[in-house]
Specification:
The complex is a heterodimer of chains A (198) and B (521). Chain A is mostly helical and 198 residues long. In chain A, 48% of the residues lie in helices and 6% in strands. Chain A has one domain. Chain A is globular and about 45 Å long. The N terminus and C terminus of chain A are likely disordered. Chain B has a single domain, classed as FAD/NAD(P)-binding domain (3-Layer(bba) Sandwich), CATH 3.50.50. Chain B has 521 residues and is α/β, with parallel strands linked by helices. The model of chain B has no long low-confidence stretch (mean pLDDT 97). In chain B, helix 1 links the parallel strand 1 and strand 2. Classes of the chains: A mainly alpha (198), B alpha/beta (521). Chains A and B meet through helix 6 and helix 7 of A and helix 8 of B. The structure holds flavin-adenine dinucleotide (FAD) and iron/sulfur cluster (SF4).
């Protein structure tokens, strides 16, 4: 039987690129950031409003803990701004046609509305129990007056996006004990375009 | 009026740089023909194939949206690729032969369609292709395997996940064999051997997996074939008689229209887009679309109904190891198609290498686990997860079809609208099969078992081959009945789906096609 060790010993090293990295223009320079780094640097969003960002971050954090700091909002925002066909969101496998932004934004508006109706405050101000309650209701399509794609479908899509940023990276995979074993390793470094060439 | 630029003329013009198109290009240039490949998607290189389930999505279909309806939608965006290598660039390389009993559904069971050929006609082509592209497997252990040369490479190793699940099959008296994969278990023809890291879905950048970038495209380019990327073919052109294809029209990335002329034209743009191009090639000679005097273009669209059985085991499974396509195969029930309420063959692809995220990843199948419970589940599953894939036969139905939509793409071309439903007997086949899979997992000692939804796997049909020009689109070589020099290659020509993965057969048929073309042109 082959062991990880043996396999890793035979591993060839390939050119490093950035699977999750997203390019931002800052002061005329291209910055390559992972979603987590983009969040930490508070990079401006291209599509989502501040309210949409805080709604998405809070609900995703309740579904997949760790997704806020892993940069779920930066990841989704970046992908929504991509050319149709280039967006790397799992929704493209689920029958969503580009552009994906209206699907996400209508869903976030419906989630925001539900928080106001049930708790009289936005998601960012909900207690953990309150956000858990809303998430449970989304999962089972139990929210009345939901005016977007079915809540359970949005839940599924957001959960998948959040799993991408939390578990779909080298560090996320290794964090749960699954060796990543990349051929062409995705970078988790924050690189400027110039540094990357070096 | 749009300006049309008329370009040079080639002996052979190939639409689509995937599995079938690449092979035909290589063989045609080796026979001294001038060849041009037009590919709708972008150029892809091995160095683009990052090991990430997220960036893997960029390899998927990126052309005009495909509309889907029916009770079993075809999942075009997951099931199709785009750019150099086509879907085959990131396919999982499970290369299986059709069985003898797959070729005569109509005459043997009164269901669907017959092929115009039998297994014996294809066997020598399977043998030649496996020697050229390389398959690892154990022909003797595959007790269900039809006659043919043994595999050129020994089977790939079976890791803990496969060993654990195998016990369940054996306890129920069922057999398993190593899964035959077009993946090198040892260096083969200058290509390296597999490292068992399960990144096949993101594309194998080391050449271990027989994708077109390392099999037939290098041969095509070495022989002088040209390729134009970002070139979306819209229609096939013909002469005054209507019987001779003279070339094609295509749009480049900027939307400019071009025409290229050729002696022979091959449509190898995969099942859905081949039919779309033909239907869009309407003219006074071909009022219902080219090669469609039979009204069969677009019909008999098929996809294998597939369903995952998943579970957790006490034993460590190391499910990240191996190939995405799986480690083991079971075809115990393949010979028995007519099961009364249920119809069709099926197989199990066992112990697929699994990643944490993405459509086939660990997390996705358990949407019921979220919040604080998710991370402990993921940690446990990372070590103890196992899965296998039920792949069932689809019954060819005339009403499952590709038509042209009212909606248009960026070039003003009608979108493809697909309709695909499975009938009750196919549904029963899936239900029975999945029930068996759950029993297998229990027998293997799974502490928890769950199943995925029934999904579409592989696309076939839409331009079926047959003997009768009134009942089919093309002949046994893929030549359109209505045309002298227009050929169709790819799984679109299958008159029935069998229950095995189609790409080995796509290669075998494409080899027959190009040899016929070279003999006649
Ligand atoms: C994720 C995945 C896993 C798979 N795993 C397996 C497996 O393990 N075993 C197996 O047997 N099969 C597998 N398949 C199926 C396999 O990939 C296909 O059967 C095979 O690639 C079909 O070959 P093709 O040449 O007909 O089409 P493709 O390989 O898809 O090539 C068609 C090409 O035509 C291009 N094209 C489309 N429209 C146009 C146009 N209008 N103009 C110009 N170009 C156009 C496309 O961009 C594409 O590059 C898998 C597929 C996928 C997506
Ligand atoms: S598992 Fe093998 S075939 Fe698949 S990507 Fe890795 S090296 Fe390539």
């Amino acid at each position: 039987m082959h062991t990880d060790k043996k396999i890793q010993a035979t591993r060839r090293s390939f050119l490093k690129t950035s699977a999750m990295a997203m390019t931002y223009m800052v002061a005329g320079k291209a910055l390559m950031l992972t979603p987590a780094a983009a969040r930490a640097a508070q990079m401006p969003m291209k599509i989502l409003s501040a309210l949409e960002v805080s709604t998405l971050e809070t609900l995703c954090e309740a579904i997949v803990p760790g997704s806020r700091s892993a940069g779920i909002a930066a990841f989704v925002d970046y992908q929504l701004a991509e050319k149709p066909g280039d967006a790397l969101l799992m929704g493209r496998y689920l029958g969503l046609e580009p552009p994906f932004a209206p699907f996400y934004q209508q869903g976030l508006a419906a989630a925001h509305q539900a928080a106001l109706e049930q708790f009289d405050r936005p998601w960012s101000q909900l207690t953990e129990t309150q956000s858990k309650s809303l998430i449970d209701q989304m999962f089972s399509d139990a929210i009345a007056n939901w005016s977007a794609a079915p809540a359970s479908f949005l839940f599924f899509v957001w959960r998948a996006d959040a799993c991408d940023v939390v578990y779909g990276t080298q560090s996320g995979s290794e964090g749960i004990g699954m060796p990543y074993m990349a051929h062409i390793a995705p970078s988790d470094k924050w690189l400027s375009a110039k540094e990357q060439q070096n | 009026m749009e300006s049309i630029s008329l370009e040079d003329k080639f002996d052979v013009l190939i639409v689509g740089a995937g599995a079938a198109g690449s092979l035909i290009a290589a063989k045609a240039v080796q026979a001294g023909k001038t060849v041009l490949i037009l590919e709708a998607g972008p150029e892809r290189k091995l160095s683009d194939l990052e090991s990430s389930q997220i960036s893997a999505r960029k390899l998927k279909w990126g052309g005009a949206p495909v509309e889907e309806s029916g009770n079993h939608k075809i999942g075009n965006s997951f099931n199709s690729g785009y750019g150099t290598g086509g879907s085959a660039l990131h396919h999982y390389a499970v290369w299986l032969r059709l069985h003898e009993n797959d070729f005569n559904l109509a005459s043997e069971h009164g269901v669907g369609l017959d092929w115009p050929i039998n297994y014996k006609d294809l066997m020598p082509y399977y043998d030649r292709i496996q020697a050229e592209a390389g398959i690892s497997g154990d022909a003797e252990a595959e007790k269900w395997r039809p006659e043919g040369a043994p595999y050129p490479m020994p089977a790939l190793p079976v890791f803990a996940q496969g060993q654990v699940i195998k016990k369940g099959f054996n306890k129920l008296g069922m057999a398993v064999s190593p899964l035959p994969l077009a993946i090198n278990s040892q260096p083969y023809k200058g290509r390296s051997s597999c490292l068992y890291d399960g990144w096949c879905d993101a594309g194998c950048p080391i050449g271990a997996l027989a994708n077109p970038l390392v099999t037939y495209l290098p041969q095509a380019f070495a022989g002088g074939a040209s390729i134009r990327h970002d070139s979306t073919v819209s229609r096939v052109l013909h002469d005054a008689s209507g019987r001779k294809a003279t070339g094609v029209e295509y749009f480049d990335a900027e939307g400019a229209v071009h025409q290229v002329l050729a002696e022979q034209v091959v449509l190898s743009a995969f099942a859905v887009q081949n039919a779309r191009i033909l239907l869009n090639s309407k003219s006074t000679k071909h009022p219902a679309g080219m090669a469609n005097s039979s009204d069969k273009v677009g019909r008999y669209l098929m996809t294998h109904p597939a369903q995952l059985v998943l579970g957790l085991f006490d034993q460590q499974t190391d499910c990240h190891l191996g190939a995405t396509g799986g480690q083991l195969l079971c075809q115990d029930d393949y010979a028995n198609k007519d099961k009364g309420d249920a119809f069709g063959s099926y197989q199990w692809l066992i112990a697929n290498a699994t990643k944490p995220n993405d459509l086939l990843g660990i997390a996705t199948g358990r949407a019921d686990i979220y919040g604080a419970a998710l991370d402990p589940f993921m940690r446990k599953a990372a070590k103890h997860f196992g899965q296998m894939n039920f792949v069932g036969e689809d019954t060819p139905l005339a009403d499952n079809r590709i038509t042209l939509s009212e909606r248009k793409d960026q070039f003003g071309l009608p979108l493809a609208a697909t309709h695909h439903s499975i009938n009750e007997r196919t549904r029963a086949l899936v239900t029975e099969g999945v029930k068996q899979g759950v029993e297998v997992f229990k027998a293997a000692g799974a502490t928890e078992t769950w199943t995925g939804p029934t999904v579409a796997m592989h696309l076939m049909g839409g331009t079926v081959m047959g003997v009768d020009a009134k009942e089919s689109v093309c002949d046994q070589y893929g030549r359109c009945h209505d045309m002298d020099n227009l050929y169709i290659a790819g799984p679109g020509v299958f008159p029935s789906s069998g229950a095995v993965n189609p790409t080995f057969t796509v290669h075998a048929l494409a080899l027959r096609t190009v040899e016929k073309m070279l003999a006649t042109g």
